[in-house]
Amino acid sequence: MPKRRGQRREHTFAEPRELAALPYAGYLEPFSGRLAQSGDYDTVLFDGQEFEEEDARDARFMESAFTSVTFTGGRYRRARFSDVWLNTVRWVGGDFTETSLADAEIIASVLAGTAMPDCRMRSVVFHRCKLDSVNLRVAALREVSFVDCTLRDVDFAGATLTGVAFPGSSLERVRFDKARMTEVDLRGATALGIADGYDALRGATISGLQLMELAPAFAHLLGVTVSDD
Length: 229
Hints:
By secondary structure, this protein is mostly beta strands. It contains one helix and 21 strands.
């Protein structure tokens, strides 16, 4: 059934959709030019653009699609992305502080050195993405899934994670210091490399095998000495 505006999309791990399958695909208008501060972009197709050091603070993107787009640097504070589809998009650096993403599908994309502190994500699915040195401190993630992704040096310190899952994803040196978790499912992660914040796993679900792998860190956290002597 096509999605209507205001109707919440079901949160699943299904294969990502093609551009033509989007309910608003037939209404998309190609974009040209530069982004604008407080710009309003509704049913717009961004295809192949390279945005370098743009100022799109407070911009609004709704029912829009991005394919093979590159964002290099730039200012996107408080920008809003609602009901958007992004495929093979690259974020290199850039200030996305206090941005919001809702009902978003992000496919085969790369975020590198991107600053997204205090951002808000709701009903977002990342498919086969790479997140490297992404700052998500004090962000709020609700019903967000990282499917077959790589998260390396991602910082969730102080973030709130609710209904977040990592099926098929690899976590490397991820930080959860002072994060708050509710119904977070880590069982599907292929690697669980945590650099900091083991105590924040309260509220998360892990597998028995992951528990064995994390046991030394838990023992250290509790001040327990493990010795067979």
